[in-house]
Amino acid sequence: MAVPESAFARLGDPFDPSDLNFFRPSQREQVAMIAEAIIPRTDTPGAIDAGVPGWIEVIVQDCFEPADQEVIVNGLANLMRRCQNEHGKNLSQLTEPEQVAFLTKMHHETLAERQEARKAGKPQRRTFLEQFKDLTKLCYVGSEVGVTQAFDFMLVPGKWVASMPLEPGQKVWAM
Amino acid sequence: MNLNIKGKAAHTFDAIVVGSGISGGWAAKELTEKGMKTLVLERGHDVKHIVDYQTANSAPWELQWLNRSSREMLAQQSKQARTGYTVRPEAGYLFVDDEDHPYEEKKRFDWMRGYHTGGRSLMWGKQSYRMSPMDLEANAKEGIATPWPITYHEIAPWYDYVERFAGISGSREGLEQLPDGVLQPPMDLTPPELDLKAAIEGKWKGRTLIPGRVAHLTAPTEEQFALGRSSCQYRNLCRRGCPYGAYFSSQAATFEAAANTGKMTLRPHSIVHSVIFDDKTEKAIGVRLIDEITFETLEYYAKVIFLNASTVASTSILMNSRSKRFPNGMDESGSLGSYLMDHTLGVGARGTLDTHQDKIHFGRRPNGFYIPRFRNFNEKPNGNYLRGFGYQGAGMRQGWNRGIEGFGADFKKELTSFGPWSIGMGGFGECLPYENNRISLSKEKTDKWGLPLVVADAEFQENEFNMREDMMNDAAEMLEALGAKNVGAYNSPPSIGLGIHGMGTARMGGSAKVSVLNKHNQVWGAENVFCTDGAAMTSASCQNPSLPYMALTARAADYAVSELKQGNL
Fold first, then answer.
1. If both were cysteines, with which of B6, B189, B388, B463 could B375 make a disulfide (CB 3.0 to 4.6 Å apart)?
2. How confident is the model at residue A114 (pLDDT cuts 50, 70, 90)?
3. Residue B55: which of B10, B94, B101 has the closest Cα?
């Protein structure tokens, strides 16, 4: 799958693509694939359009604790391996319903595993899919493309209206 | 003796104000407006109004890491990060570097500080409430700590005075436990908040819900416009600094007024070590400071000194101010450093609603609702405790920031659709003043400027823990009375400091035997030294304390100048 350059840093982002040095090229493709499966392009831009993969990398690189970085790196490899084993294909080669079913199944399994581990008294970090989904969501709703195209963005609302009718087509407030 | 007369003249003022936050700003304004040539000392760097608010107009994608904290920031500001919301790219630079500014914790103490011009007036929560007669009488009635040396009647005109200038938005309610003041129009309540108000008032006679009273302009006065301030624009990006000067800060309000007099000199990077007391004249003659950048020790002189460095810092300065008269610091009562208070919080409830699905709100209100105290006022407590608590909360339509199951296009559709309304409230409980909740100065360790480290030894006690049970259960009951769904109550382990309402340690009181300060906030025995920040608080009340600091400061400054004119200082 070809990931456009723009997925990794866009004009005006407060980081430079050369600041990114956490993922290997193959991992970058995986990050983009999974992020796009979580937030695909529909009538509004998807995760790749919004530059989410680059944001994910800069945040995992600079903000995540080493133990959570490990969850991400191992999780990527594990997810790709499972997808190959179960479907004989890459995630991006599955149809959208197949992608959703695969991620949902995996999400429930890893949650169950964590529950078991917790019962056994072993403290567990949040699962790969929990963390990755959160990251994808937060990067999408923070990105310029996501904020301005999928949401209603106002830096300066100028007034407070405590109640007004929800009109059809009204987008969710970006912030 | 070789006196540098010219140098000394350049270092001599009518008044010195130590600290530039909420109370220091007020001291500067009042003293300069009364004709006093005033030096304001700020220990940290200068932050100029508007031009230095680096991130005030940043869009989300313009903030580093989309406003998440980096590992490096968290390591550098490990204690400031305990709030969970302050050490972020948008405004983390307004909180101190804990590596440079260490302190010792005998028990966990979350000391949240901003060392820059304006202090925490730039990052405060802006909730602004009066203390009531009940609050000021409680210590005396219950025999707790020591009585307040002032009555509500004495302080009320000063509340009027500071509210008129600062600009407080809120509704007039006629409540005995939360006196009305000079208020600009309130910020409207949302539909679920109005429903909650009706549900609460219907079920409990003594309870009500009102719009939060908040230091934001909603109908600026001529005086406020003239200072360059304008109405709130409902961005709710306040902690980055407000380019509209819409919320009260030293920069937007008091320093503008003080600067207009031409009588204020602001000196940043000035870490005050102590007050210089002259044993011959039995008066303070100035302060000794260490320049933050050059490490030089300097002296500045004035007739009147106001300590407004923040609760713990003002007390530290008093402790360091040793003389023949005050060999152990400026206190003879033994109370200096004791009776540290904060509000007890991190307890409340939240839920969701299936009503009003056809309505949304517009704009970002930097405020919510307030439920004034009812326990130990018009309702008995369930447990065994004195005093009470109020709640701050909000009922808002949920957007993307809610838990959404699933992946793919359906997930995205939910993410970009409005969710149900959610409603929640968190309690702010009064903490009693305990002698054994105290700060002291380390005898061994100093910071890089040679100042002894603060040692904190304080914790919430049985009264607060008992109160927290009601704080949690009452919140849940009120949400249930509204018919909220998925009501979840919480009561997280509390620690002192997280309310960022440090109070006490140099309390006001009726005599030099029991307190550090008298009824005009003067240090007993050094009457030209005033302390009017949180350190002066004799008890906490359950309301947010900044408005009382403003009123006490304006009152004390008025008294100081009048005493000076009469030759009494």
1. B388
2. confident
3. B94
Evaluate whether A174 touches B416 at the Cβ level (below 8 Å): no
- The average pLDDT across B510-533 equals 98
Q: What is the mean pLDDT of residues B350-370?
A: 98
Nearest to B417 among A39, A44, A172 (CB): A172
CA distance B497 to chain A (A): 26
pLDDT digits (tens, 9 = 90+) for B367-416: 999 999 999 999 999 999 999 999 999 999 999 999 999 999 999 999 99
**Residue A166 included in any domain:** no
DSSP-assigned letters across all residues of B307-365:
E-S-HHHHHHHHHH---SS-BTBS-SSS-TT---B--B-SEEEEEEESS-TTEEEES--
pLDDT at A4 over 80: no
Query: Given CA atoms B563, B564, B568, B569 in this order, what sign does their dihedral have?
Result: positive
**Domains: count for chain A:** 1
Name the residue range of residue A54's domain.
5-150
Select from B184, B177, B265, B272 the least CA-distant residue to B220: B184
* Contact between chains at B361 and A12 (C-beta distance less than 8 A): no
CA distance B156 to B53: 34
Q: How confident is the model at residue A120 (pLDDT cuts 50, 70, 90)?
A: confident
pLDDT in tens, B200-231: 999 999 999 999 999 999 999 999 999 999 99
Q: Give the nearest partner residue to A170 out of B66, B235, B360, using CB atoms.
A: B360
In chain A, which residues have their Cβ closer than 8 Å to the Cβ of B184? none
- Enumerate domains of chain B plus CATH numbers: 5-169+213-344+430-460+495-565 (3.50.50.60)
Identity of the residue in B356, B360, B407 whose CB atom sits nearest the CB atom of A38: B407
Asked if A40 contacts A91 with a C-beta cutoff of 8 angstroms, the reply is no
The pTM assigned to this predicted structure is: 0.96
* Total residue length of chain B: 569
List of chain B residues whose C-beta atoms are within 8 Å of the C-beta of residue A133: 407
User: Is residue A168 in a domain?
Assistant: no
Whole-number pLDDT of residue A18: 82
Residues, chain A:
175
Kindly write down the DSSP assignment for every residue of B525-557, as one continuous string.
TEEEEEE-SGGG-S---SS-SHHHHHHHHHHHH
Domain assignment of residue A167, yes or no:
no
DSSP string covering B411-475: HHHHHTS---EEEEEEEEEPPP--TTSEEEEEEEEE-TTSPEEEEEE----HHHHHHHHHHHHHH
For testing the chain A interface, which of B416, B417, B422 should be mutated: the one with the most A CBs within 10 Å?
B416
Which of A3-17, A152-166, B134-148, B437-451 bottoms out in mean pLDDT, i.e. has the lowest?
Answer: A3-17
- Of residues B359, B363, B406, nearest to A165 (C-beta): B359
Tokens 């009503």 locate to B355
Pairing of strands B104-105, B347-353: unpaired
B543, B164 contact by CB (below 8 A): no
pLDDT digit string (tens) for B440-489? 999 999 999 999 999 999 999 999 999 999 999 999 999 999 999 999 99
Interface test with B, best of A63, A107, A147 (most B CBs within 10 A): A63
List pLDDT tens digits, range B253-279.
999 999 999 999 999 999 999 999 999
